[in-house]
Design brief:
The chain is mostly beta strands and 287 residues long. It folds into 3 domains: 70 residues, no CATH class; 108 residues, Jelly Rolls; 104 residues, Sandwich (Jelly Rolls), CATH 2.60.120. Helices cover 1% and strands 49% of the residues. The chain contains 1 helix and 24 strands. The longest helix has 4 residues.
Length: 287
């Protein structure tokens, strides 16, 4: 369980010179003479190839590959019950910051959902999702594959980050029985800049939706909520995980003045026959 941090120092000079990097997760990176130093992270027991093609004459092109090796700690294992939910801020999954990989397991299968923030610099390509046994995985994926769609596994799921780029996003794990209670189950992470969340459970087959909100601070402030006027509209913030017995934290159909605070690091918004737009923020402290 050693991963490789590969630094490619680019000295290509010719306009027709190329280095093409392929990894086992299907990512292809093209490097030309205009590129600078680039870093790659190679997951244990997988392969990354560097193909060098120099078509220019007497341009004195060069390159150097520097490889650093680092151990990955044994993962911490969590068993999810039928009404459990577990989340991690991506910053807490960096193994080169001495964080521990996290494995989720459930007898009914595990669903991974990325709770993406609105921060434009968030990246997911160096967070890995491992299916099956961590030492001898069935599949290894990059997390950016699941940013827009949740991922279901009948076996264990492990998440680990191999670089230390700061992220405002999170990842949520739920057992399948909890996930399938809703026509759509998504997530969002709020941070010190205003986020916008749209939810619509008024059309198509997605009539009951849940969005789990993860806060980067100790609370979430709702700056404004605009919702449909349908008398059958139900729009509530409830404690997470969202179940029939979850405590109601805020019933938006009865609120007329904003801002409003929910002093939880995580909760869920459940919408039935309702469309709404939220503006939310997680300030660093309550005034």
């Amino acid at each position: 369980m050693v991963y490789a941090h590969v630094r490619l120092e680019n000295g290509l000079k010719g306009g027709n010179d190329r280095i093409t990097v392929h990894d086992q997760q299907g990512v292809r990176t093209q490097i030309s003479s205009r590129s600078t130093v680039q870093d790659f992270y190679v997951f244990p027991n997988t392969t990354t190839t560097f193909q060098v093609v120099t078509n220019s004459v007497n341009m004195h092109s060069a390159f150097r590959i520097v490889i650093f090796y680092q151990n990955i700690l044994n993962p911490s294992v969590t068993i999810l019950g039928s009404t459990d939910l577990k989340y991690f801020v991506l910053n807490d999954l960096h193994v080169n910051s001495h964080q521990t990989p996290q494995t989720m397991t459930s007898s009914e299968g595990v669903v991974l959902t990325v709770a993406r923030s609105g921060w434009h610099t968030d990246v997911f390509d160096n967070f890995f999702v491992v299916e099956g046994d961590f030492q001898s995985p069935k599949n290894v994926y990059r997390m950016n594959k699941f940013v827009d769609n949740s991922y279901f596994s009948k076996t264990n799921l492990t998440v680990v980050g191999l670089d230390n780029r700061f992220s405002e996003s999170s990842v949520i794990f739920t057992p399948f029985s909890l996930y399938k209670q809703f026509d759509e189950f998504t997530g969002i992470t709020t941070f010190p800049e205003a986020n916008q969340l749209k939810i619509d459970s008024t059309s198509g087959q997605k009539q009951k939706k849940a969005v789990t909100v993860i806060s980067m601070s100790d609370y979430v402030m709702f700056l404004n909520v605009q919702m449909s006027s349908d008398p059958n509209c139900s729009l509530k913030a409830v404690e997470a995980p969202p179940t029939s017995s979850s405590q109601v934290l805020l019933d938006f159909s009865t609120v007329t003045d904003y801002p409003r605070n929910i002093t939880r690091k995580s909760f869920s918004i459940v919408a039935e026959n309702c469309a709404a737009t939220f503006r939310m923020v997680s300030p660093n402290s309550i005034n």
